[in-house]
Write a structure and sequence with these properties.
By secondary structure, the protein is an alpha+beta fold. The protein folds into 3 domains: 159 residues, no CATH class; 105 residues, no CATH class; 68 residues, no CATH class. Helices cover 35% and strands 27% of the residues. A hairpin with a 3-residue loop joins strand 15 and strand 16. Helix 5 runs antiparallel to helix 6. The longest helix has 28 residues. It starts with a strand and ends with a helix.
Length: 357
Amino acid sequence: MENKTHILTDVKVLDSAEGIVEAFVNSMGEIDADGDVIDPSAFDNSILMNMPVSVLAGHDSSKIIGKVLNAHSVQAGDGTARLYNRIQFNLDTQIGREAFSNVSGGYVDQWSVGFNIPDGGAELIQQGSNAVRLIKDVDWVEVSSVIRGASPNTTTISAKDDKAAIPYRATATTDSAWNGPRTVAAIPTDASRTTLRQMFAYVDADENPTSKSSYKFPHHVWDGGVGDANIRACRAGIAALNGARGGTDIPESDRAGVYRHLRRHLDEAGIDAPELLGAESAEEEMGRRRRRRNYEDEAASIKEVTDHDDDLAADDDVVLVTESFVPSTDEQRQQVQAKLTELRARQLGFRLLNRSE
C-alpha cells in the first residue's frame, strides 16, 4: 500500500463535542516528494465505493482513531486540487481522544492517505526531462495523522477546541461529599489553563481561558491539586444538563460533549448514567422542576394554616398541594391555581383573625 502525506497549516476544530475536523489530506495535480502526480479525479471511484474510510494513527491498522464522513476533490483552478475530508474522531476511545487533542492542538501537523493502485491505475508520463508516474485511479484504504510524510499543502480547515466540551481524561473516582462552590473557590486564581481544563468539563473560549470563571461543570476534587473525579459532581452535572437546578446555558451543540465527559467518569466507576435528554425534554424538565419548587413553596405557606385548621387540612385539594402534586395538563394547572387562590384567601383570613385576637 502506498502513502501520500500533507503538512497542516491551519488548525481549528469544527465540533469538538463530536470530535469532528475538516481537513485537506492530499494534494493532486502536482509532483509530490515521491516524484508522483496524482490526478485530481483519482479518488472519485473510491469515494463512491469505500466510504466511510477509516482514520488511523501513523498508518497502524491496530490504531483506529476515527472515520471519514465525507470527502471530495476541491479544484484550485490551476490544474491542481486537494482532497477534502470531514473526519470524526472516536472520542469513546482513549486513542481517539488523544489523537483529536494532538490534531486540534497542532502537536501533529501532517495528514497522510493510504491507498492501493489497481491494474491500469498508473502510467509513466514525461514532464520536461523527467519521467513521472501519473496515478489516475486509487483504491483508497485509509487516512492517517502522521509526524512526517510526502505530500505538500495539507490544511486542517476547521477546529474549535476551546469553545466546547473538554475531552475526557481517565482518572480515579470518589464518592466523597461534594460542594461545588467551595471546590471552585479553593482553586487558585492563578491556576494554569491545563489545571483548569482538568478540573472542569466545559470552557468558553470567548472568555479568558486562564480565568476559572470561563469554566463550567467542576467535577474533580481539589486538595492543593487536581484530584479524583467526584461521582456526585458528575451526577449533578448530568442532572443540570437535563434541566435540574435551573438547567444550563451552554450551547446546545456542546451538551453532548459535556455529557460524554461526565458519563465516562461514571462508567469508570461502574455506575449507569441517566440518558441525556433532548433540548426540548430538558427544557420541559426544567419547567417541571420550577413548577414543583413553586408548589412546594405554596405548600409550606399553606401548611402554616393547616396546622391550625383541621377542616382545611382535610380538604382534598389542599392534600394534593401540600404533597407537592405537580399538575401535568393545562386543565389541572387551572384547577390547582384556582384552589391556591382560594387557599391564600383563607390563609389571609386566618392571619387577620389571629392578629385581631
